[in-house]
Amino acid sequence: MYIVEGNIGVGKSTFLSLLGQNCPEIETVQEPVNDWAKNVSGESLLDSFYKDPKRWSYTLETLTMIYRTRDYIKEQSNTNPNRVMERSVYSGHYCFAYNGFESGFFSHVEWEIYNKWVDFLLRNQCKPPKGFIYLKTSPEVCFERVIKRNRASEKSLSIEVLKKIDHFHDKFLIEKQNVFEELKKIPVLVLDCSDDFQENPEQMQNHIKKVKSFF
Known about the structure:
alpha/beta; Rossmann fold; two-stranded antiparallel sheet; 10 helices
């Protein structure tokens, strides 16, 4: 199994859809955002997080880790070697939860409890993927795409948040700072997605060639 990673708005879902359409031999699995971003007490949990991250970081990151671990365990048992999954338990931890912690959104107790779940779920239940496919572009481009797609849950998302998430993706996938030892050995394919590959079939074909070579 391979994992497609990247900042909010970079185009992961679109990339997987086009990859599946052009390569029937590749199975794609998109992130089930609706499972963990659905209404809670009449409000979107994701939207609540963007509005008040200090109140909702622990709740959101713990819930997403549970859902992502459930889906990851299911997918890692699949025997198709050319299976690509959108986002993973690892970026959820190293990019989003770490951003919350370093931004002061977790209390000390919350961070300790969260990491106990990390040790139990990520280290004991999840096997590292065969590789990561990192869709990379600037936070500014991601912000433009977020505005264009106009999701209700992202109305409060700021460019500052995207800059932080971009920073943590680089630390995780390129610099491999403070990651599990078993993840440091996993290869990473970085694709420059600054151009809109959905509107540029030639660019998408170049990405597909690189993916196939990576496989």
